[in-house]
Each structure stands twice: as structure tokens, then as C-alpha cells.
Amino acid sequence: MCLIQGPARYFKALWNWHALITNIFFILTFIFWIAAYWDAKKNDQVDLERKYWNQLDSVLISEGTFAVAVVMAFFRLMFFCRLNYYMGPVQISLGKMCADLAKYITIFVIIMISFTCAMCRFYQYYDGMVQEDSYGIKTQQISSFVNFQKTLKTFFWGLLGMAPLESADVIISNLPGPKENTSIINTHDFTENMGYVCFAFYEMLTMTMLMNMLIATMSSTFQRVLDNLNTEWTFGKTDFYLEYMMQSTLPPPFNLIPTQLGFNLIKQVASFSSTDAQEDQRANDYNALISQLVQRYFREKDTVTTTSEIEELRQEVNELKLACKDLIDIITSR
Predict the structure, then answer these.
(1) CB neighbour list of residue 250: distance below 8 Å, 6 or more residues apart
(2) Same domain, 115 and 212
């Protein structure tokens, strides 16, 4: 389909990107399975326990790629929800909400990196320190802000409200006391308080402001889809039909069954030698078709809007007539 439609047109559809990435992960899974087989056969370590495996063992990598591929493969079921009258608008809303989320990701990343660079520099000295009180209870410095990676992870989960409150605590190792076998407990209260202020300001900025703005934007997007429920669903369903009309195979898993169209496609791809003029003509035809669909979409939308305005006007006129009639009855009775 990429050869027939051309890469520019084929990759305009996000679901085609989804299919490509899914296939890549499945192919990588098979490649690492084969690599693991040859590795075990070469080194004769078939019965080696998993705990001795290297972190980049072929089996471990294949399990990771296979997990991602399975998730994406089952997520493909969302593509067929567009055919349902009730699930179709929900699927369309989900796609539009993902676009809203992408707009906010840049702001979230900038805020997270700015706080991360400051906090990891602020707490890196206290990494690994352990403090023991007079009762012999030991307390170790929490590793939430001791380096860049852990600080970024803490702020990410803090964005979802899952970071521990004691993340900003400062623990200092015991200092030697004036006498033998004695120690002094020192505290850096100013550093700890500044850490809590920064952490609290981050939570208010992201959770209270940005997260609520994102939720409001998503709610507005969902409401716009519901306001044009019939049109949005019809447009999405038509786009679904057009995509499958161009396919030469049945939907998965029936695409494993050979069809006559599939053999014709293989012959067409094998002898594929179209000119630039033919590619331009196909692109123009496709653009013309999409343009007609979009124009029909807006015509129906304007028609619905005009009809609703006329109905509201008629209702107001009827209410005015009833009010005048009541007024006349009151004047006559007097």
C-alpha cells in the first residue's frame, strides 16, 4: 500500500504509523528469539538460571519488544470502534485528546527539567548518608533528588500525585562528639525547607494549574465532538470504509487467507513502475475526494445550524403570541 499510494500519502494516516511500528517490534522479537537460540546453542547454556543472565540478554530484550508489540496489536481494536455509533465518537474524542496532550507535553517537560536541574544539584551531597539517633534507629537519606535520573523520576510520579511526601528530607551522617563513642546529630533545616518549598511549588504549578487546564481542554474537545455527534461519526466511518476499500486483504486475522486481490497486488508491486505524472494524478484524485467529503461535512453542519436557528425563532414567535394573547385577555377582562 505504501508503494501504491506513495510514502507521503501513506504516512499521513497515524494508524499507518501505528501498524509500521507494531510490525517493527514483532520483527525485532523474532530476530532476538533467533539470536537467543544461536547463543544458547553456541555456549551450551540452555539451563542457565535467569538470575545469571546479562541485562542485555537476547531473551530479555525479546520479551520487552514482544510486550510492546502485543500492547500495540491489541490497541488496534480501537481502530474498529469507529464503526459503532456510540463508541465511534469516543474513539474520535480520544484521538483529539491525545493531540491536546501533545500540546501540553512541551510545557510539562520544560517545568520538570528546570526543577530537576535545580533539585539534583541541591541534594547530591547527601547521597547515601545514614543518621543514627540516640535509640539506635538508623535513617537513610531518600534517593529522590540525589541525581538527575532519580530526580526526574520523582517529579514525573509527583505529576501524577504518587511521589512520597518525605522526598525533600535532608539526612546528615552523625558527627564525632567531644567524647569517645559519642556523636552529634546535625541538621540542615534551611536546605530542607527550601527543598520542600520548591517541591510544593512544583506540585501547585503542575497539579493545580497545568493539570486542570489540560482536563478543561480535554472536556472542551469531548463536548465539541458530542455537539456534532452524527457528523463526526459519519465522517470517521466513511474514512474507515475508504481505507479498507483500498486494501487487498481481509481484516486480521483473516488476512492470512490468500485472496485473488492479494495475488493481483503482488503482481502489481512486482511490476510497479509508475511515472511521476501517474503519481500526481492519483494524489489529485485523492485530494479531490477528500475535499468533497469535507465540503459535504460543512454543508451538513451549516444546514443543521440553520435549521436549529429557525426552530428557535419559531419557538420565540409562538411564545410571543401566547404572551400577547394573555395580555389581551387581561385587558378585556378589565
Answers:
(1) 257, 259
(2) yes
Alpha-carbon distance of 288 to 54, in angstroms, equals 56
Q: What is the pLDDT along the chain (334 residues), one digit of tens a residue?
A: 777 777 887 888 888 899 899 999 999 999 999 998 888 888 877 778 888 888 888 889 999 999 999 999 998 888 777 777 777 778 778 888 888 888 889 899 999 999 999 998 889 899 889 888 878 788 888 888 988 999 999 999 888 878 888 888 898 888 887 877 778 888 899 999 999 999 999 989 988 888 889 889 988 888 887 777 777 777 777 777 777 776 666 666 676 777 666 666 666 655 555 555 555 666 667 677 777 767 776 676 666 556 666 677 777 767 766 766 666 666 666 5
pTM of the model: 0.62
Residue 145, in any domain of the structure: yes
Domain that holds residue 187: 102-218
CA distance 192 to 320: 70
